[in-house]
Structure formats: C-alpha cells, structure tokens
Write a structure and sequence with these properties.
Blueprint: E1 12-21, E2 25-32, H1 57-65, E3 94-95, E4 101-102, E5 107-108, E6 111-112, H2 113-119, E7 131-135, E8 138-142, E9 145-146, H3 181-186, H4 200-230, E10 233-242, H5 249-275, H6 277-294, H7 299-309, H8 311-324, E11 329-330, E12 333-335, E13 338-340, E14 343-344, E15 351-352, E16 367-368, H9 377-381, H10 385-389, E17 391-394, H11 398-406, H12 413-422, H13 429-433, H14 440-452, E18 456-459, E19 467-470, H15 479-489, H16 496-505, H17 520-532, E20 536-547, H18 549-568, H19 601-631, E21 655-657, H20 666-677, H21 681-690, H22 703-707, H23 711-721, E22 725-730
Parallel strand pairs: 15-16
Antiparallel strand pairs: 1-2, 1-10, 3-4, 5-6, 7-8, 8-10, 9-10, 11-14, 12-13, 17-18, 19-20, 20-21, 20-22
Helix pairs in contact: 6-7, 7-8, 11-12, 18-19, 18-20, 20-21
Length: 731
Amino acid sequence: MSQPVLPNPNNFLAVALVINRSRDGPNFVFHYPPQVRPPHSQPGQSQDGSPPEPRDADDALLERLNEPVSSLDDPVDPSSSSGHPPPHGWDDHRFTENGAQIVPWEHVAGFPTRDLASILTPGRSYHKKLFQLSLDPLYCVSCPIHVPESGIWKKKKTKKPDQAKSVRTEDAITTPSDIDLARQGAHASSTNGGETSQPEQKDKDKDKDKDRDKDRDRDGDRSDEVDDKRASMTMFNLVFILHPRKYQVKELVATLYLNIIRKVSKAYKYSQQSSDFVWKESKRIIALKEKGREERWKMGTLWTEILSSSSLAASVQDIYEAVSQNRIAALQLDTAAGPLTPSVQIPVPFYVADLPPDGEEGQRGLWLTSANSFISEDSLDEPGFLDRNFALLLMEDERKIIAELQADPDPTTAAMVEFVRLSKPTQSFYQVGQSNVLSLSQVRKYAQHFIFWRRAIAIPPLHARDVYILSPNCDTRRLPRASVEWQKTFPLAPPLTNFLAELSYAPRPYKHFCPSKAHRSTYLLMLAWLMRGGWVTQLCTFAYVVVWPEIQYEVEYQLEAEELRRAEEGPASGTSIPSSSFESSEDPHRPFGDDAHVPTINEQAAEQARLERIAEKTQREAAEKASAHALKVVPTATAHPSVNNAPHLAHMTPHIILDAKKATGKESLYMSAIARRLNDEKLAKAWHGFCKYFNGKSALERIALQEDMKRKEAWTLLTAMSEHLMVVRHW
C-alpha cells in the first residue's frame, strides 16, 4: 500500500478568491498566505528530478516570468510586459523611475494578479465542475460558481427573529477544542470598565450621533444597492494554487477537489444565495485594498486588517493553514442570516491493512488490521452489520472530552455526554444502543461525529478472550516517550517493553495475562491504551471450507449412481426402431412443396442401420458404466475424513471452497454432504448459517456478535465444525 499524496506547504502554495463582475470584470480579491514564493527547479532538472522536457516559446516565457528579481534596487514597471515580478518577501510599496506605484499584493507566485484574475474566471460551462489550469510548474484547481441564469443570486426567506440562530450542519457539531475560540471572543461585546451611568447631556448627544449614523448608514445602503445593480458579481472562484510533483498531480488534484474545494465552494454558494455574503465580503476586502494602496500600507498591515474584519478572508486563511497541515478546517462565516460553520477535511486513514513498503514511514504507527478492508458490499447491505461488529475507541481521555462538551451550550451536548459515558471499546454500537438512554440511530450519529472530528476510531470490540500481539506496524521510535506515559497512566503495570514482548512471545487469549479476574477491567483499559497508540493488533482467525477426498468421492459416487438410475428409467432397450425416420408425417425435416425428395428403399435401410448402431453403442456404454460403478467401493462416512487414507482416495486431493456462501454446482453438493454428516440438527442448521463467514475474510471472533450469540456457544459450534474448516490467523 503506497503512501497517499496529501497537501503540505511544499505542494500546496496558496488559496485565492477571484470574482467576476458584470461591469468591472475579473478581480483577484484575496489570497493566503500573503506572500507566495514562485516555485523554481534547479537548472537542467525538472521538479521531480527527471531530465527536463522540451519547451516551446510560451513555456520559456512562463519560466522567465517565474524568475525572481536579483536586486531590490531594480523595481519593475507594472506596465511593462517583459518586466520581472517583485521578489518574495517584498512587503512595502515601491515606485519606478517614472513614478508608477508597485503594490506588493498585486503579484502572486510570480504572476500579476490582474492576469491571474482573467484566466481564473472561466465560462459558465465550468459551473460547479472541476476547473484545472496548468501554469507550468503551477496548477490552479477550483470549482467555479456562476450566478443562476436568471442573473440573480437567489435568497432564502427571511427567518423570524427567534429563528435567526447559528446555522449548524449535522456533521459540524463541534467541541470547544475543535474551533478557534479566539475569533468567537473577538465578536463578543465588551464592557467599558464598569461605568454604568453618564450625564444626561452626553446621553442626548449620543442619541443625536446615533441618529446621524443611522442616516449615513441608510444613505450608504442606498449607495451600495445602486452600486450592486451597476456592478453585480456574476461568479466567484475559490482557487487552490498547487505545485505537485508530476507523478502526483492527478491524485493530489482529486483529493483536494473531492474533499475540500467542492465542499467549501458549495458552502460559499449557500451563503451567497442566502445573504449575498461572498459579494458583500468581497466588496469589503476590495475597499480595504484600495485604501491600503492610497495610504501605502505595508502588506502585513493590510492583511492583518482584512483578516480581522472579514470572516470570508479569515475562512480562506483557515482553509490554507488547516489543509496544508492535514487538520480539520472548521470555518466560521458570519453571514447576515446567522453564523455558518461548515467543516471540511481530507479523511485521514486511521488503519492500514498491510505493512507499508520499505522506505515509506508515513504510515508507521497506524493501527494494523484487515477488519475494515475485508468488509464486502453484501455485509454493508446487511442490517446491523456495522452496529454489531464495531465499537468506539476514544483517542483522548474520556474525562477531558466530557469536560469540553459540558462547556458547550449546544442543546445536543447532554446526549453526547451520555454517549461518551456509555460508549466503551468493549461494547458494540448495537449494545450501546440497547440502553434506555440513547437510541441506536443516535449512537450511529454521534459515533460518526466523533470519528469525523478525529476524536475516535471504530474498532472491533475488545474482549479478554481474544488474542492480541505486538503490531508489526508500530512505530518503535516513539517507544521511550510512550513508556513514560504508560508508567504514568498505569503505575502498577509491568514496563511497556516487557508487556509488549510478553504479548508476542506466545500469543494466547488476553485474559491469561491478567493476574486475576479482579484485574481484568484494568487490563482492558491497558489494552485500549495500546490499541489507541497502534502498539498492538488483534490476531484473528479466518476460515475456508475444505472438502476432503472422502466427501468428494461420496458426491462423485452419488452423481454417477443417479445418472445410471435415470438411464435405466429411460426407453426399454428392446424398443423397435421405426423402419424409416422419414416415414413420420410429423418429421420436421420434411421439405415442403411438390418437389420434396422421397427417400428410396436403400436410403431408408441405411438410416435404420445407423440408428440401430447408435442404440447399440449407447446400451454398451451404459452397461460398461454400470459394471464399472458396481466395482467401485461404496462410500463410507468416517468420523474423521481428514485422515482417511483408503486406497480408492489416493489419487484425490483436498478441495478448498474460497467463498462458501457463493458455492454453486458441485461445490454446493459438497456443502450439503458435509451438513448431512453433522448428525446434530442444531449443528447442521448452524453450518448453513455460518457458511457466509467461511470466506477467509470474516474473522470467526466476530460471529458471536453478528449472530447475537454467546461467545462460548459460537465457539462450541465452530469447534464441532473444525474437521471441515481450514483456518488461518492474521491481523
């Protein structure tokens, strides 16, 4: 399994917002980070280290545009088409010899923003579709959103005052540690040092000032409305500027587009349609940039002002910083309809099904298991499969998570706290849902929420009778630090290194490592800690049905006997053959018309002789088969067909059924023959019920959970079937 291609500061350079207006045209509104260095390859070498590819004149021009300026004392004239872009790290305004002003934020990654704005506003044919532009070696990827064909961004009905609350989606219920509380605090109202009263005259002056402010606001609103009608926004485009290696382009683009770009663009589209959010925020940002140009603000100063006054710009910053660091981007869009808090992320694998190749250390330390990768579509369609086969393992201390939840005023907090208290790694979702506190649908919903927020993972329920070993994928580099944490968490437990060595020295059920039954609960907590850190994995048992030669011979013998019986029940051997096959008036081969050929006597005699020869040959072969069958050894069922070394079975080899549930033809006859040998009626019924697990992919340890049986009962039945099962053990 190769390591997935994820965004990082090397291949993910920036996020930019571009809009198009009916009158003023494209506008490069905002980008983050503020200064984007143009990527460069070493001379004579491509980005991935391979020899350079031939370039045409346009490629050479683009490469020239990407070159940095060697000296700060040689600024560029923006009106010059052949000039260089300003150097990276350039924060202040500069002026050319002829007095032209050069603004630092009007170049991104070596390109003028006015040019980028023009090429990053594609036509309506790209509406809500993947738009990908290559500016070698850069890639610009986006999902453009155009105004509806009516030309008006639709707005939803105005909510009543008591309904204008925070808009929160089901997958965006957050705990305080998941979002930036500092930004929320910035919007809170502040007190004035405890002063609670003012002179009456000052109050009157304040009222007059408020009235004047309201008048100015109304005038400003009218002006904005006129401006909006004259220069309305016709599209916006959130662009991701990438610099991937050539062999990673396709995977990185797909990962970002499906998980981040499309979802954020959809959230922006919703906020624009409901409250004109994107356009209003864009106007605010553009106005600040114009003010910064006039007053010659440094770029750092301007960006600080923009980020503090525009939640749209702040969301662009959050997207870049979170996604480039492989974290969850929890956005806060302060729309007129209420705060909108969408959250996006690139799903992080919390397990691997196989050991990573040598040299790929990025997946070291992840939980090693095939429990997830072996889930078939049939199982997923089965009601309750996931509920019965998986439990929730919190990735942090339960008390810490509960404390964070209790600090959140959201109405769902109480139910989520109960979910955290009830959910144990030893209990399946189905078992948690059997309580009178939470329904099974609530358990599913909250489990999905905690997994989405990377606060938990889904694992097969831990059990003291299961076998756990040191994971071959554990990250031993973390062992010294983990040993200290282990000893601090479990001061009376054996040292971590000793305990891990003991687990793998002679694998056996986990309960045998507990000093006594009274210690079992503590040892299960220790096991959960080890699973959380990827130190151990479960050693599971998988099975295939093996058909021994004795049973194969029995089925073959019965098939042959049935064939001979049907032959004997057919037409009697002495039945006379018609004098001519052409004499029947029902002969379908007789030609129509007056010119039909009438067989001669010789032809009729030849046909009769041919039919007699066929009948004689059939009778002779049937007699030979019957004689050979009579000489065969009659099948005898033995108690242990696996050790039957009878001479008549010497030429046969055992047969493996890869998926017993899908057995057809002769394999289905083998399954029935085995069931007949299970004399106990309950055992024979269980054989047909358990066959769906005999595919080498379903762990036998999970049968009791799925069938809602006692573990002891399930293993008793499996032990009685063991003569006909070939088992393997792995994670």
